[in-house]
Structure formats: C-alpha cells, structure tokens
C-alpha cells in the first residue's frame, strides 16, 4: 500500500472556506483557553528508516519461542503463506464494511463464503459475519436465549475457559440474568447436577472439548437441556470440529467459538474472531450481519445483506450489536485458510494434533507424571508432576520452548498442535522428565 498522504494547505483552506471558518483554531474556540495547549511538547520528527529501526529494536525485546506447547483458548497453528500474501493485497486491506451492499459484491461474497464454511464445521443452518472473540460470542448467545416466560438463568459447568465465564457473567449481570456455575465431575460436565437445576433455566453453556481438553458427552447434555425446556449452547473448537460430531449433530441450538485457530496468528492476544451459528429456528436472534445469496435482475449470482442487526444499519435501540469492520477482515482470513486447507487438510491437522498430544501424554506418564483426568481428550490435557510447575516451565523456557499453562503448583495444562514436530516434542519431554531430578 502507498504511504498515507495528509491534507495539503490548499485542501485544508478549501475545507475551512466551505464551512465559513478562517482558521483551524476557530474550530476549538468553545473550549476554555486555559484547557488548551499552546503547543505539544513532542520530539522532532524522524525518518521512516529511523522509525523502522526503533520498532525493530523494540520487537527484538520480545521472547520468540521455537516450540509452543500452550493453548488454553489461543492456539498456535501453521498458516499457509498463500493466505498471508493474499491478505496483504490492497483491495482486501482497504475494503470497508458494506453500507451500500449492492456495491460491495466482493466483500459480501467473502463473508458469504466464510458463513458457509462455519456452517459446514458446526452443522448449523446460519451464522453471522463474526463477533469479537469466542468469549463475546458465548455471552451473546446466552443473551439470545433469554425468554419472556421468566427463564433468565444460564447454567454453566466450571470447566470452560475462565475468560469466557467472566464475560458471560458481565453480559448476564447487565441484563438481569443469573449465572449458575456447576462443579464438574472428574473434569467433565455434571449432567445429573444440571438436571436438578434445569427446571427454570433459559440455557446451558458447555464447551467441546472443555477447558481441560476433555471431550464431553455433548449429545446427552443437549438432550437434557431440551428435556428441561432450555436451549443448548455448545462452545466449539473449530479444529476439533474436523473430527468430532458437529454441534448440529449433537442437537445444539447455538454453536459458538473462536476461529483464531483457523489462520489467525496469536498476535499478543488479538484481534481474534468469534462466531455464532444457529439452527434455522434461532436465526433471527443472531447479531451482526448475515449475507445471503440470490440472483440479480439478469439472473446472475449475487449477494445481499439478508439480516442487518448492527446499530449502523437500523435504529440504535433495536440493534443487537455494533460489530466493527475489522471483523470482516478476520473472517476473510479464516475463509482463505479453510479454502487453502480444504476438508481433508483440516482433518489432517486435527489428526496430527490428536496423535501428537496422545504420544506426549503417554511419554509423560511413562516418565512418572500422572494424568489428572481419565477421560478422552483432543489436543490438550492436564498432568500432575512431582516437580513444581514453575520449575518445569522455566527449564523449558531456557531452551526456547513455551511450556503448558500452570493450573496448580504441580499441575500443567498442555497443548500440542501440528506445529510441534516429534523431534521438538521429544526434546521437551526429556527436559520435563529430568526437571527436579538433577
């Protein structure tokens, strides 16, 4: 992209003349003089090369890990170079949200393709053009389940991502909804406890796999929710969805999650991209934008904004969201990644994750560690070690390996993806087995 060129003096004066103002300072005359600065105390400007050098030195202070064995909601996967290169094209970087949708066919098609792929992964009928994160997606879905029959309580097992639980609590509190957190049993959703509390609940939220990496009995949870007259919201890991039964097959009403693992880098925490997919019955509750496919007057394929729930499209008091434009760019990245990988490629990634995680877990157990939970897992699991978690993480750090997330003094939540080679994993496992035994 070209460098940004600011207004020149002629352009600036023309704008001032058009509004009847002589000087830019006149635009601020309503601000008391004692609150205005005569000048900004800024250092002298620098050249592009100098600025580049400064930021390069700053970036060099970051710790770069050769191997990453941590997940807990943010996952390190390989993204094909083609995706990154295509995203840098100026027509994608400069494209804005489709306020006049009929003039934005390219952007609308990219959103439609993204929606189609998310629906394929989740087994649902419709999805929106993304929200900010998996946590906000889960919270928004909870609000969509609030009904007029007095059911305003959501039941959640305490084995979901902590940040998601906190966001749901914040959203629910603002709407007068109650969040009932149920303790898990052996790391899994306690279905019996849910049945005892579900009589007046609006919905249940659970994750598949859950925060500890365990695979839940999703079909039974969804069936129990419906039996109690509640909605079932299933948090989905899109990579795991390539192998597990989809949310639609399990009977969920909503499938939510974060698609960061589909082509978006970790990037110090964002921007990420949440999704909310729903059955046809729940489609009109979805927030954000929904793009549909149709034909124009000449019978050619065309795309339109079928549902527009943003405050910039409809009256603010009726809006369901205010999702901003960068989310469409993130959705484009996800669509490119999925198109590049294809169904078989995504299954191969998921299979590699499962295989490497189980290989690592078996070796850790053989070297004296214990699996905290006995259930089946996808690519994350919790281990208990004789050595302290901090000592293990520090030992790995010295070898440029980011270890798992400490969840207790001797407990660690590990994550293995296709980016960790067997050679790198073996090196990490050797370090883990030796820590505390020197």
CATH topology description of the largest domain? Aspartate Aminotransferase, domain 2
Taking the sheet with the most strands, its summary is: 7 strands, mixed
- What's the name of the CATH homologous superfamily of the largest domain? Type I PLP-dependent aspartate aminotransferase-like (Major domain)
Series of secondary-structure elements, N-terminal to C-terminal: HHEHHHEHEHEHEHEHEEEEHEEHEEEH
Could you describe the 3D structure shown?
The protein has helices at residues 9-18, 48-59, 81-87, 90-93, 105-122, 134-144, 162-174, 191-197, 218-227, 247-250, 326-366, 389-397, 422-434; strands at 67-68, 126-127, 153-157, 178-182, 203-208, 231-236, 254-258, 274-278, 289-295, 301-308, 370-371, 380-384, 401-402, 405-406, 411-415. It has 438 residues and is α/β, with parallel strands linked by helices. The model has no long low-confidence stretch (mean pLDDT 90). The chain is globular. The chain has two domains: 67-78 and 342-434, Alpha-Beta Complex (Aspartate Aminotransferase, domain 1), CATH 3.90.1150; 81-339, Type I PLP-dependent aspartate aminotransferase-like (Major domain) (Aspartate Aminotransferase, domain 2, 3-Layer(aba) Sandwich). It contains 13 helices and 15 strands. The strands form four sheets. The protein has a seven-stranded mixed β-sheet with strand order 2-8-7-6-5-3-4, with helices on both faces. α3 runs antiparallel to α11 (326-366), α5 runs parallel beside α11 (326-366) and α11 (326-366) packs across α13 (422-434).
